[in-house]
């Protein structure tokens, strides 16, 4: 089981990349960040934490409904060179960065300026009243606007609160230098890569990866990083952290979240090449969360309750039941049990092809284009307004006049089915005919794009256009990847046709016309599954 494997801590780059030869193209970048760390902080780094971005092949916006997804790590990543500083006795701590747990973080990219922050312990007077809760440590994270250091702080949060609960046990001050090659806001999950790398950097510098009595597993790091990332203000599912941590270069990763986190390597057809193309529309998930990402999380959760009620299932008043759990209860699955892919496929198809989802449409309305109002939604949920607010709105800010419950569930169920079909084609092949397999995988990707665009409304005109141009340029399938509303597309192109495909897209997609050379190569490139996160001990 991948989730039970330990977090790899390597001592050579050859181990990081599988062989000395494979490490060659990357060595200069790793050396540069180590040298630059020494120049800026006056000593060598003790560790370099690495976490990759990911491309999601199929299964969009269904991880937080607890359905399985199929991403793969890419070779673009975040590196954090880091070293602890000695914690001076209190009388010698003259500046903020001498305090226990103080962090000085710099970024090789000049756009991201140097930040210094000090975590406050619960007893400290500087913590705002409303933030004094069960946790031992507090870090001030701005959840209203996108700030680069928020992701560093998010990674630190869980490490502090999980590992430094005793009064005697204090975190060391740490210096960090970050460099990233995952384009930000592009749907390749630079955010999760930052959070995972940051979590690893703080664990390593505080000696928490060397503990003999408890070796941190990949599954535990996924759970910790998932909780950490939510601190930034986006109620994300666990796909990105799982892909960043558990990926393997030989295959894509089927990640299941229910009943527990589990990952399975899924080999891809040998002639399948996945090409990533950036729409050049930046998707700022934090600033748009209340109208986009977080709104979708709330819509799918409320829809799950309404559907459960209409199917006669019993759901506790304060339970935030997910769509996957509702499907399980409907099928007769008991707690902790997994009905398996065959039964899941059958149950999802039955629900989609029946009129059972009609309950989610607006009352007395023929079409469902308008969606339901907040008032109607509360009534449909069967909860009082007070309980509804507590369960569905107290932890998140959303902004909408109408809620599209029917369309969202149609997308989630059909997308979950497409993930199962995609895996089947990869695992079994279509009677050994690779061309036929590629065609089928491409169709599933195209259907996914249509569903994201029309039902989940997480595409945008540029993504629709870029996927269309990709199909015209020879892709057998093309879709947005990641949260959407901008960012990248992923296209499936048969091996041997990639160069012609890339050339054609470069010529036809409007926003690429002003780019040339390396800048153009940066926005469209072929990718293959990459390695998961690790720590390099220098
Ligand atoms: P990206 O593309 O990294 O923003 C987001 C979520 C995922 C998943 C996808 C949509 C985060 C960190 N990740 O991915 O969990 O829900 O959207 O499938 O928010």
From TrEMBL:
Keyword line: ATP-binding, Kinase, Nucleotide-binding, Transferase
Positions of transmembrane segments: none
One GO MF term: ATP binding
Alphabetized Pfam families for the sequence: GalKase_gal_bdg, GHMP_kinases_C, GHMP_kinases_N
Source taxon at top rank: Eukaryota
Catalyzed reactions: alpha-D-galactose + ATP = alpha-D-galactose 1-phosphate + ADP + H(+)
GO biological process, one term: galactose metabolic process
Occurrences of domain Galactokinase N-terminal (ranges): 35-84
Record-annotated GHMP kinase C-terminal domain positions: 436-509
Record EC number: 2.7.1.6
Pathway named in the protein's UniProt entry: Carbohydrate metabolism; galactose metabolism
Domain GHMP kinase N-terminal: residue ranges: 165-247
InterPro entries: Galactokinase, Galactokinase_CS, GalKase_N, GHMP_kinase_C_dom, GHMP_kinase_C_sf, GHMP_kinase_N_dom, GHMP_knse_ATP-bd_CS, Mevalonate/galactokinase
Assigned GO CC terms: cytosol
Recorded family membership: Belongs to the GHMP kinase family. GalK subfamily.
Protein name: Galactokinase
Organism: Crepidotus variabilis
Lineage: Eukaryota, Fungi, Dikarya, Basidiomycota, Agaricomycotina
